[in-house]
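User: Show me sequence and structure for the first protein, then do the same for the second.

Assistant: Starting with the first protein.
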Amino acid sequence: MEAPPLSSGVASNLRPSPLLPRLSPIGRLWNPREPCSKSKKHLSVHASLSQDSTVTLLDYGAGNVRSVRNAIRYLGFDIKDVQKPKDILSANRLVFPGVGAFAAAMEVLNHNGMAEALCMYIEKDRPFLGICLGLQLLFESSEENGPVKGLGLVPGVVGRFDSSSGLRVPHIGWNAVQITKDSGILDDIEGQHVYFVHSYRVLSSDANKDWVSSTCNYGESFISSITRGNIHAVQFHPEKSGDIGLSILRRFLNTSSSKTKKLACGKASKLAKRVIACLDVRTNDKGDLVVTKGDQYDVREHRDRDEVRNLGKPVELAGQYYKDGADEVLRCTSENVFVPLTVGGGIRDFTDGNGRHYSSLEVASEYFRSGADKISIGSDAVFAAEEYIRTGVKTGKSSLEQISRVYGNQAVVVSIDPRRMYVRSPDDAEFKTVKVTTPGPLGEEYAWYQCTVNGGREGRPIGAYELAKAVEELGAGEILLNCIDCDGQGQGFDIDLIKLISEAVTIPVIASSGAGAVEHFSEVFKKTSASAALAAGIFHRKEVPILSVKEHLLREGIEVRT
């Protein structure tokens, strides 16, 4: 399910954020184990009262903040970007959508003087909304690549979820929150699902309990939002939480707005299973970008002109899937899609036509800044895993390792494209085998799953089980598990494969390839540990509406976002 490589035209626009420091590795200009500077003699808070429709955005240069920009503009507000510390101090409303790794974010904030200004702004009780890492940075310290000192405004330590008992980390998906005190911006969201994607969390304590406005349960109860006066911060992503999230942003940006409608009472109680719409986008023979769908990875019609199968325009389909209730959309961005977007294809080192070299990290950075929430790596991850298995050494140079180190493993999906290889006995294969439900063409009772690269065209000497284990070690936060044999067949997911992989790793697994009916979704969730299920053609052709899938899952007792 790999998309075509990123074109040089896109890559030529790669550029760093104006806030990103051009400096040596972390620690040279800032010691991450030292607390935030408390010297504020040269700064003062002076908010302007003439820009009620303007929201100040603190974008420190990492991750997808375009989603937040789109949501703010959708709600009718203008955006002013922070360029220097005084922009923070003069803000009427400040939104801080933190994305990426804790230490890297603190480095940028301290190096540019933003940490000091941010502390002053918040201590003056100016309207503030922190999102995800924007919540975590308010606390005293983090264990992520640390200990690393935070802003120290709220008591508590950011720690990693404990996966030792089988909990899947990162925590990815739509979960319910429990309101613990009135916060204004969270009105009406209890019983609703909001979108989380993180590996680290903060626990409630006697020291911070007065700040906590809601909690969420994922293996344990953790802080999902804090509130004090005009200061708000949330661990989840309101800009990716559909209408629920937009209502939260609207309440923060304009508390007196008459447009803030009361939401219907929800029944959310736990992490929901996700239903994902996949858009396989590529250029057809006329040079137009179209959504296509393969039949065992073959996207051509094989009739008349042998053209690439055209199922519609990417942005229009993505927008329709958002309206239809898809929990995520792969491979397309849109200014009117407020659910997570994952982009795959071309995430690798390359040199453009002008001889300019781009690292995979630079390519991923541009994807993130263009609106992607997660990126999907295919062939490059296979080669990295093969090398890791061969040497036992993590070099830190692979695209998988580099991107997960900077943006966090929750931002990295590895797409696995295997095909079934039947054998009579497990002894006939050097890779992990499984006893198959349906015997092979010669009555074989076992199979191993050979991984492929280059869109399924080239087989590699590594099994899906071995690849999954290796990429988890290298920093993958989620696995998109395809199956060439099932692709486009409409006979159901490969349950044997999905069960094998989802039980082998502690990161979430997305089941893909083969869905043809609503019953196939309930089957994969009941028989395997998959966290999500993906489909493409049946949604594009409207053979099975997303709403029908969700209604069926609810009838089967499987919690989904409605």
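Switching to the second protein now.
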Amino acid sequence: MTQERLWQDLDPLWTDPRTLSALLCGSAAAIILLKWLGQRQIQQKMEEARRMRDLALERMEKAVCRFKKENPGAQTAHILSLPMVELVEKLKEGSLSPESVLYSYMGKALEVTQEVNCVIDFLHGCEDQLQKLKKQKEKGLLYGIPISIKDHINCKGHVSSGGMVKFLGQVKEEDSVIVQVLKSQGAIPFVKTNIPQTMINYDCSNLIFGQTLNPLNHKKSPGGSSGGEGALIAGGGSILGIGSDVAGSIRLPSSFCGLCGLKPTADRISKLGVVSPIIGMKSVTGMLGPMARDVESLALCMKALLCKEMFRLDPTVPPIPFNEEVYSSSKPLRIGYYEGDGYFQPSPSMRRAVQQTRKLLQEAGHTLVPFAPPKIDYVVDELFTRGLFSDGTAHLVDCIKGDIVDPNLKSQFNTYRLPVLVKRILAIILKPIYPRIARDLNALCGVGSAKNLWNQHGAVAVYCTEFIAKWRKLGLDVILCPALGPAFNHGYAGKLFAATSYTNLYNVLNFPAGVVPVSTVTRADEEELKHYRGHYGDPWDKRLKEAVEGAVGLPVAVQCVALPWQEELCLRFMKEVETLTHGMRRNV
């Protein structure tokens, strides 16, 4: 049949108004039906995931009840009160059994998740691992320690959802390297914890498993993206957790929940076996790291991880064992410090935390030197935002297709999915009124070409060299600076992604950085907050003020930073801060 004859046969369809109308109505109905079917399919997948979670928690509860029935004299309260280092000692000497510790934490985790919704899976293989552990002659550094794992870190026989429907049903065939190493050191991974959808957000909510609350104040966010970890550990349901950090995702929940958390140098710990919605992004470095109630727990975890088994399983990890000499040193430090980064004005409690910690460090014999991060606007906009979204957010937007956007992510996502041209036009319009927001919109357009991506990578290297040169010129050992906080009210994190400036700087630089709680928000801080204006007086400054309101009594942290590959020095500094600020943390 010729094209002309085919057109003649089809011509009545376009020339008859009634036929055309019927076709159009039918097409519209078909589109609506297909959309409805797609939405229904998504809902069914989410319902199935929730059903599987509930079954897992029921199984966990039955195991705890069985243990309690068989061991009515278990020292649960005593076990839960012990610091991790002391708990390890008692496990190794045999005064406490691994069973009593595991089931005590399983029971407490069930209580905590019932209150704040932080556990999304029970790693039932932990019971089999427990039996194998008892038969082993050698006891690893983390012998018998129950450990919680962030959702997207693979565990054999379980799903790593990433808070997204697209990853549901993908049961992992093997453990991630970090989980394998933890097990080899005697740790017992026992639960997986909740995260925000896509993890490019520092709240903790997704439409599959819901919103996680801050156990210290349910009106507040636990932070994210390792928010489930933060909530569970702060609630007492875990003694050690593994999170990840690409903009502050270990440090922010640690700050919001009053915990200690360490973001190591990239590749100091293996990242093999981790699900991510932005695989291939190299401009900003993400990494895995520990979260716990005290610095000693972080140090012990790092000692355990930096072992021959890690280096064997992942040859790309530099074989650098933990340097105990550096961590244990008492040599006075030369410490750079700053109270604000110049991009976001710190909240009153953030600034006070640095001021008081600086004073205590000086009194303890350390030297404190003023420091200002160079070109912070350029770093946040051009190196972090444009780097993280160098593809113009295309990969992330594609990743969310076939999903329903969580309300806490909508503000971000609605901006991300705008066409590049629209972003550029909006940036031009907003520049005279809100220059910071305009720069952010421009950066979200990405780099545009492979050539520009190379230039962007080069710019990161140049900035890193400049930053280290300034560090060396001042003869610094470490830096003391604010950690974003206190905990945000619900719904604000997705509207203030750029407020991660205090933490994302050290992802761009790839420096190890940790967070230590040092104080609590006072009524004087809350009163001073009423006069907060910010540096720009734009909607972001107004939102930050609203985000941190109503936080009296909640923890406030500081951030401790060292040069690349100096995790031991970073931890040593964190330990010093923790020790000196003990009196300031009475209510943490």
